[in-house]
Amino acid sequence: MAAPPPDIPPPTRVDVARTRRDGALDQPMSGGALPASLAGELEVVAAIPTPGAEADLLIVRDGGGGEFVLKTYRPGFRADREVWRQLPAIGTSHIVRILRTGEDDGRDFELQEYARGGNLAGLLADGAPWPYDRITETVGQLTEALAALHAHGIVHRDLKPANVLVRTAWPLDLALADFGLSRGINASVVFGTASRTLAYAPPESFAGETSRSWDWWSLGILVLEMATGRSPFRGLTEHAVMHHLLTSTMDVGPVADPRLRLLCRGLLLRDPAQRWGVPQVTQWLNGGTPPVPEDVAPRGHASGRVPLPFLGERYVDRASLARAMATRWDEAARRYLANMGTTEHPSEGWRALREWLQQFDQDEEERQVLIDERLTVALPPDLKLLHLLHWLDPAMPPVYRGLALNRESLLELALSALARPADAQTTIDDLWNHRILEVLADLSGEDDLRWIDARWRELETGFVPAADRVVAETQGLLPGPAFDGVQVRSALLALAVDPETTRTALRSSADRVRQELPEPVPWHAALATSAHDPDLVAAALASGLAHAWAQAELRRRESEAAAHVARQRQWEDMERAREAAKSQALGWAALAFGCFSVPWFVSMLALTGGDRSFQAGVMLLIWAGIGVGEVAMAAQIGGEYHPRYSLLRPMGRIFGRASGPAEFMRGLGNLAGSGCGGCLVAVIGFWVVLAIVVTAGAFLVQALILPLAVAVAYGVWTHRRWTNWTKEFDEAKRRILGAGA
Q1: Please, are residues 139 and 263 in contact by the beta-carbon 8 Å criterion?
Q2: Please, which pLDDT band fits residue 608 given cuts at 50, 70 and 90?
Q3: Least confident interval from 219-233, 375-389, 611-625
Q4: Are strands 183-184 and 154-155 parallel, antiparallel or unpaired?
Q5: Which residues of 531-546 are buried (b: 16+ CB within 10 A; e: fewer)?
Q6: pLDDT for 582
Q7: Which helix (H) or strand (E) holds 659?
Q8: Helix, coil or strand: residue 655
Q9: Is residue 104 helix, strand or coil?
Q10: 20-113 architecture in CATH?
């Protein structure tokens, strides 16, 4: 299969998963890549260069050695599912065989036969005219292909030499290929978009008209090229080609053979309703001579009517001028309606147009309304031109800024605007701001456009809550507005035009975004799974925001995890310090217990006389219990035991200031060395108190009141110390590790 030349037109299906925040949409696939579903079955043999096209082409080979062509649509482009569905049922060998279709990672692909003979463009490259028999064989095979397509309601719309594959040159075996512009039709005529290869497009394509006759005109150009050895438009600029198609008949004089000339005349009639089709071409192939009506150019000079010059031509016919202006919309709006001057000093363009309009006596009242209420009021030039064209040609199909407006073209406009919003911004904005669809419905009687406009605005209202939610969830994540207004209105327009197809595409796009997110995004998931159509639009178009939110959530979690690790380390360091200080705490406990033991034993010996009495045994048990309790307390509390929770704390200032057992002993020495007067007072006071205690204590000890009171007091105080320390320990742990620690 030879590579298509770089004049392949843009595709007509655009994927809504891609938005301006996702980057460029027209980057080709990296060389040699295969869809995952085919990677185990096929190997790449070679790449076919396709600069500027909508798809990448690879020659591939299967395990049995068979070679095929794999067409993988580039990001942003989609195949027409209806054409995919119809092609296998078309019973002709002159349509390229598509063996497998599918979608992989959001990209459509087609596996088709490999035509080793290249394409018809290669056979025509030498510039020599073809013999009659060779041309009739080509016409016969292409007629069979077109008849089969048309029978299934498909118009190819891009018949040209590059799209006619050559299986073999001798004998000639052709296959019509590349259905990127093909469309199904439900009636004899629809009005579509301007997507076309200019040199093979019929005159009616410039007004947006699409019918089966389109393909027969293209075949006529191809026959003319084969018969003369050259394209009839070779060397002409695009403007010159457009001008010729709009204003002139095709010259078939250079075709030497009279029967081929007859075929060209029949196929190249300007009027699509009179142009030859399957019956006439079949009759011609069988040797017949079908009649050919006279072909008349669309211009002429009516008696007494001054022509209006426009782009090198002079027009006296309203319909002809309307079609010329519709084709060169921007030029017409700029020249006649953009700067119209004042009532006293009109611009030259507006003065010439007004004088020309005043020559038409019919529809005089409508003409006055047109001039006074449409063309001379404060309306945008494009809207003025819209009213002008429909006065010039009331039968003109709905068209705006050169684009025919119907469901198909509106869907195409909406989907292409999603991928390239800047290109379609003016048109989308005008359709919305000036209610163009409603205006066209009034002018043309197309009530379907009115319904689409009403549904579009209803969907816009429903989108506001979804947009507000996204803004609230993602505030500050990205600079600028959360959504591109053109993309939003384009997606909503697509929903209004074709809700089922668009809903499926939006959901697929939103699901793909969800799968690509590095972190679950709850608000995006809620929108993506919603049954409310505007929510799906928000989910599909918020991919950049969803990724930013997920990245921010990841950073937040990583930050929290790092902070948790730092707090955990801090706590572990504190615990290690507390554990390391246990030996010191036990020293303090031993010292405190020793200090307690001296007066305890002195009291016990003095009050019990040293007898092995029951009272002495109880006091020994209480003493041992206090010792065990204090050591256990110190072992558990560790470094925080002294001075706050130490038994030494009640002993006063000396014990409270001491920071270690050795320093405590130095404190006792300091007291002893404070002077004889102080010592004498202390000794006398001690013996006085001792006498009182001994007198009263003898009774208390004998009755076990004092020992038990000490035990109870110690127990209550120890419980309080333990409770306070546990509370402070837990609070410190929660403060450092968090509430769940």
Answers
A1: yes
A2: low
A3: 611-625
A4: antiparallel
A5: eebbbbbbbbbbbbbb
A6: 85
A7: none
A8: helix
A9: strand
A10: 2-Layer Sandwich (3.30)
Cα(first)–Cα(last) distance of the chain, in Å? 69
Cβ atoms of residues 514 and 550 within 8 Å: no
Altogether, the residues listed in the chain come to a count of: 741
Cβ neighbors of 464 (< 8 A, separation 6 or more) are none
Q: What is the DSSP code (8-state) at residue 54? A: S
Going by C-alpha positions, the residue among 328, 8, 375 that lies closest to residue 161 is 8
Q: What is residue 665's predicted lDDT score, i.e. its pLDDT?
A: 47
pLDDT, tens digit, 9 for 90 and up, residues 241-283: 776 787 778 889 899 999 999 999 999 998 899 999 999 999 9
How many angstroms from the chain centroid is the CA of residue 587? 70
As given in the structure block, the two tokens for residue 249 are 């008949």
Closest CA to 284 of 268, 261, 253, 254: 261
Lookup result for tokens 């007291």: 671
Kindly report the backbone phi and psi dihedral angles of residue 716, in degrees, each rounded to the nearest multiple of 5, phi listed first: -65, -45
Residue 60 contacts residue 44 (beta carbons within 8 Å)? yes
Count of beta carbons in the 10 Å neighbourhood of residue 725: 17
Q: Give ∠ CA 240-241-247 in degrees, rounded to 5.
A: 85
Mean pLDDT calculated for residue range 517-544 = 88
Dihedral sign computed on CA atoms, order 401, 407, 413, 417: positive
pLDDT band at residue 643 under the 50/70/90 scheme: confident
Whether the Cβ atoms of residue 57 and residue 103 lie closer than 8 Å to each other = no
* Residue 292 CA, distance from chain mean position: 53
Domain ranges (residues) in the chain: 20-113, 120-285, 308-396, 408-549, 588-737
Q: Encoding tokens for residue 400?
A: 């705006």
Q: Is it the case that residue 594 has pLDDT exceeding 70?
A: yes
* Token pair in block for residue 720: 């309080």
- What distance in Å separates the CA atoms of residue 23 and residue 93, rounded to the nearest whole number? 41
Residue 429 neighbours by CB under 8 Å, 6+ apart: 486
Main-chain dihedrals φ then ψ at residue 175, nearest 5 degrees: -140, 125
Cβ distance 81 to 98 under 8 Å? no
* Amino acid (one-letter) located at 180: G
Residue 346, classified by CB atoms within 10 Å of its CB into exposed (0-12), middle (13-18) or buried (19+), is: middle
Cβ neighbours of residue 282 closer than 8 Å, sequence gap 6 or more: 143, 147
The correct CATH number of 120-285 out of 3.50.80.10, 3.40.50.410, 1.10.510.10, 3.40.1280.10 is: 1.10.510.10
**Four-residue CA torsion sign, 443, 447, 452, 453:** positive
**Predicted model pTM:** 0.54
Q: Which two tokens stand for residue 200?
A: 């093979």
Rounded to the nearest angstrom, the gap between the alpha carbon of residue 2 and the centroid of all alpha carbons in its chain is 34
Q: What is the dihedral of CA 195, 198, 203, 205, to 10 degrees?
A: 0
DSSP code for 531? S
Alpha-carbon distance of 173 to 184, in angstroms, equals: 26
Q: With 60 as the cut, is the pLDDT of residue 677 above it?
A: no
What's the chain's Rg over C-alpha atoms? Answer: 48
Cβ distance 357 to 371 under 8 Å?
yes
**For residue 86, what pLDDT band results from cuts at 50, 70 and 90?**
confident
Q: Which two tokens stand for residue 268?
A: 């190249």
Query: pLDDT tens for residues 339-389?
Result: 898 888 889 999 999 989 988 877 788 888 888 888 988 889 999 999 999
Q: How far is CA 51 from the centre of its chain?
A: 25
582-608 vs 614-637: helix crossing angle, rounded to 10? 170
Give me the phi and psi of 174, to 5 degrees please.
Answer: -110, 155
Residues known to be catalytic? 158
Residues whose CB is less than 8 angstroms from the CB of residue 583 and which lie 6 or more positions away in sequence, other chains included? none
Q: Which two tokens stand for residue 403?
A: 């684009």
Name the residue type at position 432.
Answer: W
Place of tokens 């089709």: 277
Higher-confidence residue of 519 and 701: namely 519
Using alpha carbons, select from 160, 151, 206 the residue that is nearest to residue 184. Answer: 151
CA distance 143 to 277: 9
